[in-house]
Amino acid sequence: MGIVGWMFMRHIVRAAGGVLLVLAGCSTAPHGGNAPHGTFAPVELKPAPPEPYVRVLNSDSNKVELQIAVRKFVPSDPAVRGPVVWLTGVSHIGETNYYEALQRHLDAQSLVLFEGVGEHGPGEEVTPAERAAQAQEKGNESSLQSTMASSLGLEFQLEAIDYTSLRFRNSDLTIGQLRELMGREEKTNAPGGAGAAQTFESLLGMMQGGTWLDTLMQFGMRVLGSDARLRALSKLALIEMFGQMQGDPAQLRGLPPDLKQLLAVLIQQRNQKVLSDLKGELGKNPGPASVALFYGTGHMPDLERGLRGQLKYRPAGEEWYTALSVDLARTGITPGERQFIHAFIQRELEQLQARP
User: Fold this and answer.
1) What CA–CA distance (Å, rounded) separates 122 from 171?
2) Does 37 reside within a domain?
3) Structural domain for 308, as ranges
4) Which residue of 74, 233, 241, 249 has the fewest C-beta atoms within 10 A of its own C-beta?
5) What share of the chain has pLDDT > 70, as a percent?
């Protein structure tokens, strides 16, 4: 689970006492007005908001699937030469086939700029061997995520994806840089600034494990894993949660001020780092033929806005990968149980959206 996913899980656990993953949100379309009758007022064309990067399919009445988009972008001006850019959104837990398909997609790209908050500072070189060791260490530290995946019969991203290729390059802020950004928020007395810094430190502690909450949640995950029916119901709840929120956490109006402020840093500031690294590649001659921006799904809508607005790219195709699926008939989930889970998630999200 990425750092944004951890932020939302901490909030939901604190508020509802459950273990829920929230990586995405709802986007709203801009509204335009009509020109007065008989006049021809200039029309300012606003770019269309990003399409959702998450969808739920139920093409087979017995099977429910959570799919995540991988979108292709090319320069808007045909005369401009530039690499193909793939916004490769990812669920941090998923099925084995999902990560195998993603691995093939990533291996086909010239360069992969990937998410990974760590301790290394700007300009510090990291060898493939060191990167593999860091991934293993991060997997050990992220025992809760790994436990959650295995309890549900799934894989954990850091354990399923091979990051050792020279094509893979970390493109993220360090913990120190994030702390510095939080400190600036406190100094400027921005609403929620101090609370955001405290929430971030609490989040880091939770990610590293060893807390009573970590122990309690791991116990709960193991209980889920001991029963096939509970496992299936939990996967269905995750599918409903991800599917109903559709990829833009910035639009969740009901979040507390500290989480809103933290979200702005964790998504927008880190996305700017990725776009800056990508811009550096655009100026190279010869540059990469293709670049994948490999980040959690919650980053994708903001990344797309930056890619289209700042770097003048346009969508040119998409692929959909199934991250999670549940066979309702095989697992014995009734239509009534599915409807109950759908309505429960919908009600919780509506209540969160309705908060001032």
Assistant:
1) 10
2) no
3) 3-16+47-354
4) 74
5) 64
Report the distance separating Cα 333 and Cα 342, nearest Å.
13
Question: Pairing state of beta strands 63-75 and 54-57?
Answer: antiparallel
* Count of positions (residues) in the chain: 356
Q: Has residue 92 been placed in a domain?
A: yes
Q: Look at residue 329 and tell me whether its pLDDT is greater than 80.
A: yes
Closest by CA to 278, choosing from 68, 87, 69, 4, is 87
> Is residue 24 a part of any domain in this protein?
no
pLDDT at position 128, please? 52
Strands 84-90 and 63-75: antiparallel
Cis omega (within 30 of 0) for bond into 286: yes
Would you call 69 helix, strand, or coil by DSSP? strand
Q: Which candidate, 14, 17, 49, 13, places its Cα nearest to that of 31?
A: 49
| Structural domain count, the chain | 1
Range with the lowest mean pLDDT among 30-44, 45-59, 63-77? 30-44
Please name the amino acid found at residue 291: V
| Cα–Cα distance, 127 to 185 (Å, whole number) | 34
Maximum Cα–Cα distance for the chain, whole Å?
70
Distance of CA 200 to the CA centre of its chain: 17
Cα(80)–Cα(278) distance, integer angstroms? 16
**Sequence-distant (≥ 6) Cβ neighbours of residue 91 within 8 angstroms:** 23, 66, 68, 98, 157, 242, 296, 297, 323, 324
Reported pTM? 0.78
10 Å CB burial of residue 61 (0-12, 13-18, 19+) is exposed
Residues in Cβ contact with 49 at an 8 Å cutoff, skipping those fewer than 6 apart = 27, 28, 29, 30, 301
Dump pLDDT digits (tens) for 192-238: 555 667 767 666 666 655 555 556 566 566 666 668 888 898 899 88
- Round to whole Å and give the CA distance between 200 and 143: 19
The residue among 186 and 239 whose pLDDT is bigger is 239
